[in-house]
Amino acid sequence: MNESDKTLLAPYFQLRVEVDALSESLEKEHKEHLSCKKGCDLCCMAISVFPVEFYAIKSELNPEILPEFPVPLNDIDCRYLVDHSCAIYNSRPVICRTHGLPLLYMSLDGDDYELSCCELNFTDFDMGNFDEENTYPMDRINSQLYAINKRFVATFEGGKYSERDRIPLAELFSE
Fold it and tell me: Nearest 5 degrees, angle CA 13-CA 17-CA 18?
């Protein structure tokens, strides 16, 4: 990856700062309804990410100081989940930064919103009390991530990826 590619990652890192700020705000607002804590890994699984996210995460990690990660025995387990803890936590993808919190999506038919949250959270919360102010606007976040990725892949390594390509996160140290 050259300097130009690193410059293309800057919008992704800025989005991640915004995601983290919103996550922190929502965690404070909903703290009495969140069961998530270090050691909880119910939502941790093998995922694929856009190239911009893959290369941003890869740029932050030094494989020489990280332990050798075993290859999972299946396609479900996250390679970076070690003893119920994320070994790449500070560099984790956007989706991992939002899990557990109340996520708001436009329904597939586009006429209403749908809410998603961890089954361990909000067990004694009236779901009718969620609104656009106290939930994650996932459509906006995902749209921003898609646009950032689109710009990244347009110039990255001469068209190696398309805007819809995904790379398994487990391959961070395989390339």
Answer: 120
Q: What single DSSP character describes residue 68?
A: P
pLDDT truncated to tens, each residue of the chain (175 aa)? 566 667 889 999 999 999 999 999 999 999 999 888 878 888 899 999 999 999 999 999 887 767 777 777 788 999 999 888 899 999 999 999 998 899 988 878 878 888 888 888 888 888 888 888 899 899 999 999 999 999 999 988 778 999 999 999 998 887 5
Q: Whole-angstrom Cα distance, residue 86 to residue 40?
A: 10
Maximum C-alpha span of the chain: 52
CA distance 42 to 172: 22
- CA angle, 87 as apex, 85 and 88 as ends, to 5°? 125
Angle value at C-alpha 28, between 44 and 81, nearest 5 degrees: 15
CA atoms within 13 A on the CB side of 120: 11
Instruction: Quickly list DSSP for 128-141.
Output: GG--TTSSEEHHHH
Which among 93, 98, 91, 86 has a CA at the least distance from the CA of 26? Answer: 98
